[in-house]
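step=encode ok
step=design start
structure_in=
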């Protein structure tokens, strides 16, 4: 083993790979532990970990008698070096001219866009981790800039990407943000970090909701609100209350949804559309309760907020509430209120919403929201005995849901199936075909892991 005066290969490789921060190193170690446990069919390896004090001693060259056998095996898998070489002096390992770890040649299959995306993002994340290490401080301007750039990219692309791989990426960013906050930084940086943490936990709340994990979504939202409080940002506080209200609405708790809307209305956003969203959620909750006057008044209030709103939500993207989404919330409200007049209004609102979504560039189109607007239109057309129009919308929804499934779209398809089952159109050729199509989609959905395809 290397003496305290000699630099070990372990110290060099930790620095080269950007693993100088304990939590960054620990994540890599735990991943390696799971991999080697699977390869060697030894569950005990998956439990291997290293304490922060031990890691600190090793990175200072204080190796003692070296790692225990199981730990040594995981470290060997992680670094692809023997434990003897890792904790011996650099020159003894014969690594002077070849210290940089060999790049692993990963040959993605032709056209494997998801694999390429994951590979690129993994490499970018590793580079960002090293940049944070290179600043030799808890957090610096480059780290904050990189964090904000990652957040801006995610909120812009979230509505168009499969949820599970994006969820994993956001968890990694959130962990990095929490690590920064656990250290020391100037007060201005602390506020920025809490703002970033609020957004990231808010995204995780939304993603958990999309995956049908409502309890987890509520927990993420509560943490997001705490961070927004620490950042002192009214727009985010208002938006997060809206997310909590939305979860309650989908959990058939409209009274709680309305209560949370009122809590969110206490915060006047610095700018943006958070209050339009709150009023639109309130409209749907009131309509679930059959409170027509309050529902219509909430829609009117949302229109009034729209006239005053600016389009500079922070950080924008999925946190913004565009007119297309406002129209589809209005269509749902009118569907719940029922009656011929409300049904016609619902169809008009949903049709406008779909047209607005379709006018967006394909790479930023909000697929889940557009599918829900199509579901409103399909239900309105079914109620109006327009089975062909309803079938067109359902076919489009299933095509999107097969690639980007979400719990809310699946529930709306089931709702449509129940309505169709008691409709005169159920025995028509189109009606029978629709029922078969929804049943087939349901079977495929149930065979997929949570969150669908990556």
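sequence_out=
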């Amino acid at each position: 083993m290397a003496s305290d005066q000699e630099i070990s290969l372990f110290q060099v490789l930790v620095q080269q790979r950007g693993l100088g921060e304990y939590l960054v190193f620990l994540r890599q170690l735990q991943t390696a532990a799971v991999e080697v446990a699977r390869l060697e069919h030894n569950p005990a390896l998956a439990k291997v970990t290293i304490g922060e004090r031990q890691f600190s001693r090793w990175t200072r060259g204080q190796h003692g008698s070296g790692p225990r056998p199981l730990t040594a095996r995981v470290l060997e898998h992680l670094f692809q070096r023997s434990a003897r070489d890792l904790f011996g002096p650099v020159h003894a390992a014969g690594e002077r001219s070849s210290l940089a770890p060999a790049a692993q040649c990963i040959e993605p299959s032709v056209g494997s866009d998801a694999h390429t995306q994951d590979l690129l993002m993994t490499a970018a994340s590793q580079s960002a981790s090293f940049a944070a290490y290179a600043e030799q401080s808890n957090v610096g301007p480059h780290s904050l800039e990189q964090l904000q750039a990652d957040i801006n990219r995610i909120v812009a692309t979230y509505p168009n990407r499969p949820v599970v791989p994006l969820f994993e990426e956001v968890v990694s960013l959130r962990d990095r943000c929490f690590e920064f906050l656990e250290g020391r930084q100037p007060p201005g940086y602390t506020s920025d970090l809490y703002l970033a943490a609020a957004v990231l936990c808010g995204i995780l709340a939304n993603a958990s909701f999309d995956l049908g994990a409502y309890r987890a979504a509520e927990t993420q939202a509560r943490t997001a609100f705490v961070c927004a409080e620490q950042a002192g940002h009214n727009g985010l506080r208002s938006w997060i209350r809206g997310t909590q209200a939305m979860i309650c609405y989908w959990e058939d708790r409209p009274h709680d949804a309305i209560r949370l809307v009122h809590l969110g209305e206490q915060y006047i956003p610095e700018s943006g559309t958070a209050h339009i969203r709150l009023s639109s959620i309130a409209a749907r909750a009131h309509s679930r309760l059959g409170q027509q006057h309050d529902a219509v008044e909430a829609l009117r209030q949302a229109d009034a907020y729209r006239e005053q709103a600016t389009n500079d939500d922070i950080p924008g993207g999925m946190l913004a509430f565009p007119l297309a989404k406002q129209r589809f919330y209005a269509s749902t409200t009118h569907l719940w209120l029922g009656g011929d007049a409300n049904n016609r209004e619902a169809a008009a609102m949903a049709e406008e919403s779909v047209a607005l979504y379709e006018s967006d560039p394909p790479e930023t189109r909000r697929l889940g929201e557009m599918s829900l607007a199509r579901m409103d239109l399909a239900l309105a057309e079914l109620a109006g005995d327009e089975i062909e129009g309803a079938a067109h919308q359902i076919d489009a929804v299933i095509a999107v849901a097969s690639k980007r499934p979400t719990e809310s779209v699946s529930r709306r398809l089931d709702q449509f199936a129940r309505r169709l089952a008691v409709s005169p159109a159920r025995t028509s050729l189109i009606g029978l075909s629709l029922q078969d199509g929804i049943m087939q989609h349901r079977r495929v959905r149930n065979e997929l892991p949570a969150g669908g395809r990556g």
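step=design ok
step=annotate ok -> The radius of gyration is 26 Å.
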